[in-house]
Write a structure and sequence with these properties.
By secondary structure, the chain is mostly beta strands. The chain has 2 domains: about 35 residues, no CATH class; about 60 residues, no CATH class. It contains no helices and 13 strands. Strands 5-6-7-8-9-10-11 form a 7-stranded antiparallel beta sheet, with no helix packed on it. The chain has a 4-stranded antiparallel beta sheet with strand order 1-2-3-4, with no helix packed on it. β3 and β4 form a beta hairpin. The protein is elongated. The model has no long low-confidence stretch (mean pLDDT about 80).
């Protein structure tokens, strides 16, 4: 693995920065982080279009590529089995809850 440290840069890498590998992970002088590809942070999976944690049958996440945009609960490869989700168009589904005193029960 190649690690590059620089106190000066050129082009888009102005000022000090650190870069690991082939531009897949870098931190610039302002603290901005760039990471490409997949990875994990504290058990949360990161992909190009999603951040999620699937812990057995408990699933929580968000994604930009398809609906639902946000989700939580159990999913058996069927969007309708999530306990809670919000689609990109704003449609919200919850199996139960309470909003301003109004009970929601399926």
């Amino acid at each position: 693995m190649k690690i590059k440290f620089s106190s000066t840069g050129s082009g888009t890498e102005q000022g000090p920065y650190i870069r690991f590998g082939s531009n897949r992970f870098s931190v610039d002088a302002n603290g901005s982080i760039h990471a490409a590809g997949d990875g994990d942070i504290a058990g949360w999976r990161i992909s190009d279009d999603a951040l999620y944690k699937h812990d057995g049958t408990n699933k929580t996440g968000m994604r930009s590529g398809s609906d639902p945009a946000f989700y939580a609960g159990i999913n058996n490869q069927d969007v309708g089995s999530y306990n809670f989700y919000v689609n990109h168009n704003g449609y919200l589904f919850s199996k139960s809850g309470n909003i301003a005193g109004w009970n929601i029960n399926k």
